[in-house]
Design goal:
Strand content: 15-25%
Order of helices and strands: HEEHEH
Structural class: alpha+beta
Largest sheet: 3 strands, mixed
CATH topology of the largest domain: GMP Synthetase, Chain A, domain 3
Oligomer: single chain
CATH superfamily of the largest domain: K homology (KH) domain
CATH architecture of the largest domain: 2-Layer Sandwich
Strand order of the largest sheet: 1-2-3
Radius of gyration: 21 Å
Number of helices: 3
Length: 123
């Protein structure tokens, strides 16, 4: 495993741990899905998913805007790197897109099943 992968996983684990210990009430619907630290360790893109509706997503965005620097400070107390990256937070919609694809596939399967049963009745 390369160094960048290990750094990404370490930062992801620490952010998740801090969210679920220090910010339990505010972060109950948040999951850190991925962290991508730049090779020079200056910037980390932190991707998160949100359970719930659009209001929860907006609340999460406000939470990270307000607490981002504090999260970085807390991560710096446990993660020792030459440079601790600045965090940039992005909502990860991949889970929602995946759910939508599964729903579409289920609809297609149901249509195929109803078409097949309709053809059998016509025989």
């Amino acid at each position: 495993m390369s160094r960048s992968v290990r750094v990404n996983e370490l930062v992801k684990r620490e952010i998740s741990q801090i969210l679920h210990t220090d910010y339990r009430e505010q972060a109950v619907a948040l999951t850190v899905t991925e962290v991508d630290v730049s090779p020079d360790l200056r910037v980390a893109h932190v991707y998160y998913s949100v359970l719930g509706d659009e209001a929860n997503a907006r609340a999460a965005e406000k939470f990270f805007a307000a607490k981002g620097k504090e999260l970085r400070r807390k991560v710096s107390q446990t993660v020792i790197l030459k440079y601790l990256p600045h965090f940039k937070f992005f909502r990860d919609n991949s889970i929602e897109r995946g759910n939508r694809v599964v729903d579409l596939l289920n609809e297609i399967a149901e249509e195929d099943a109803s078409d097949a049963s309709g053809q059998e009745e016509g025989r």
